[in-house]
Design goal:
This protein is an alpha+beta fold. The protein folds into 4 domains: 2-91, Rossmann fold; 119-186, Dna Ligase, domain 1 (2-Layer Sandwich); 193-318, ATP-grasp fold, B domain (D-amino Acid Aminotransferase, Chain A, domain 1), CATH 3.30.470.20; 327-423, Phosphoribosylglycinamide synthetase, C-terminal domain (Glycinamide Ribonucleotide Synthetase, Chain A, domain 4). The chain contains 13 helices and 23 strands. It has helices at 10-19, 51-60, 71-75, 78-84, 94-101, 103-113, 126-133, 159-171, 239-259, 293-296, 304-312, 388-400, 415-423, and strands at residues 2-7, 27-32, 42-43, 65-68, 89-90, 120-123, 140-144, 153-156, 182-186, 192-199, 204-206, 211-212, 215-217, 221-224, 229-232, 266-275, 278-285, 327-335, 357-361, 364-367, 370-373, 377-385, 407-408. The strands form 6 sheets. Strands 12, 15, 18, 19, 22 and 23 form a 6-stranded antiparallel β-sheet that branches. Helix 7 (126-133) runs antiparallel to helix 8 (159-171). Bound molecules: adenosine monophosphate and glycine. Glycine (GLY) binds next to loops.
Length: 424
């Protein structure tokens, strides 16, 4: 079977390593992949947003199955275009990917179907938004409606910050048309939990929970990034919270999307906050999280490709999806200066493979036969162990064996989760 994976980061590397375990995956193409993914798949220099190019490649190469991983091609309708050309896919169609690509859509969906989330207002007029900010409770949260490379959210601790956020999103249009509408919402407090789920539009199967670390610096300081590390499972996601999420959030969301004529098939990511009033949705993503995937998929005991096919065929309810009860930790090695200003092209030497350790390459290219950094987040180093404590120590030990002089990592990935376990 010939499989095409759209994307070229650490998440795609983790997906490719997992599907490779199925002997039916005889050929895997990554579009565009990267210099590290090249060890596990044939990388083809077609941009993930070049939908006609992707479709042409799939047809010409008789691709049997496509997995579309990043948000941009999903929002642009990559799955629609591939399916219409006869290529079965894993991933939502454009009409369902809107759950991530429009925050206004997501908020209105939750409001209509009574799914717990922060109270909110939508604005299309900057003056009205500014007026609202003068009297709204502070802190408050300002969100651009559309995709903004994960940077469209400002948690404003003062009115001044909220005004600045509205001005840059709506006035200066720093995210382009993504800022034509904004959501201003209630500030929620509590630990955050990421839950990725498989869904075929009717059945929803949550994967093992995880915790991201979004800020660049230790103790959650510094600018927001794409994610500096993850652990799984997340200790705040207790069986009681899981039950509540299934009843009040996961199933109602899947049913709502079906009722709206936008059945969601693929991986739906629930970004949750466990507030004193119970779990609430902070965001939906229409795809696997990055770097959540780098801790979730190593714990999947079932065959990923089979589960994906079951989603595509709407047979998820009859398919076993089993996770190990071990723990995983992924430490991201990023280029010094990320996410602001950083150099690329710095040499990297990977350590020898070890059992229960994985290195997922997020941003690297091959230059004269040598792996060099190419981007902000460069590697995700994952360890799988019986306990979270051992997984965290294992990930840091293995990361220390990587030679990457221009790299840095946070030193406290998993710290909050370990502290929560000790409190129990
Ligand atoms: P997002 O880009 O949607 O993932 O949001 C980035 C981060 O902003 C989230 O991970 C939260 O930490 C924070 N955030 C988003 N919405 C809220 C909210 N309503 N209250 C408090 N924090 C929030
Ligand atoms: N790690 C957060 C995301 O993938 O959106």
């Amino acid at each position: 079977m010939k499989i095409l994976v759209v994307g070229g980061g650490g998440r795609e590397h983790a997906i490719i390593k997992a599907i490779k375990k199925n002997p039916r995956a005889e050929k895997i193409y990554a579009l565009p992949g990267n210099g590290g993914i090249a060890a596990d798949a044939e990388c083809v220099p077609i941009d993930a947003k070049d939908i006609p190019g992707i479709v042409r490649f799939a047809i010409k190469n008789h691709v049997d199955y496509a997995i579309v991983a990043p948000d941009d091609p999903l929002a642009l309708g990559a799955v629609d275009a591939l399916e219409d050309a006869g290529v079965p896919c894993f991933g939502p169609r454009k009409s369902a990917a809107i759950i991530e690509s429009s925050k206004v859509f997501a908020k209105e969906l939750m409001h209509k179907y009574g799914i717990p989330t922060a109270a909110y207002q939508v604005f299309t007029d900057m003056d009205k938004a500014m007026e609202y900010i003068e009297t709204c409770p502070i802190p408050t949260v300002v969100k651009a409606d559309g995709l903004a490379l994960g940077k469209g959210v400002t948690v404003a601790m003062t009115r001044e910050e909220a005004r600045d956020a509205v001005k840059s999103i709506m006035g200066d249009r720093v995210f382009g048309d993504s800022g034509a509408s904004i959501v201003i919402e209630e500030y929620l407090e509590g630990p955050e939990v990421s839950v990725l789920s498989f869904t075929d539009g009717t059945t929803v199967v949550p994967m093992v929970s995880s915790m991201d670390h979004k800020r660049a610096g230790d103790n959650d300081t510094g600018p927001n990034t794409g994610g500096m590390g993850t652990v799984a499972p997340n200790p705040y996601y207790t069986p009681q919270v899981a039950k509540e999420c299934m009843e009040r959030i996961f199933l109602p969301t899947i049913n709502a999307m079906r009722e709206e004529g936008r059945p969601f098939k693929g991986c739906l990511y629930f970004g949750l906050m466990i507030t004193k009033d119970g779990p609430k949705v902070i965001e939906y993503n229409c795809r696997f999280g990055d770097p959540e995937t780098q801790v979730v998929l190593p714990l999947l005991e079932s065959d990923l490709l089979r589960v994906m096919w079951a989603v595509t065929d709407c047979r998820l309810g009859e398919t076993e999806v089993k996770f190990s009860d071990k723990s995983a930790c992924c430490v991201v090695l990023a280029s010094k200066g990320y996410p602001v200003k950083y150099e690329s092209g710095c040499p990297i030497t990977l350590p020898a493979p070890e059992a229960n350790r994985e290195i997922y390459v997020a941003g690297a290219e091959e230059r004269d036969g040598k792996l060099c950094s190419h981007g902000g987040r460069v590697l995700g180093v994952t360890a799988i162990e019986d306990t979270l404590e051992k997984a965290v120590a294992g990930a840091y030990d293995y990361a220390a064996k990587v030679k990457f002089e221009n790299g840095f990592c946070r030193s406290d990935i998993g710290g909050r989760a370990l502290a929560a376990l000790k409190e129990e």
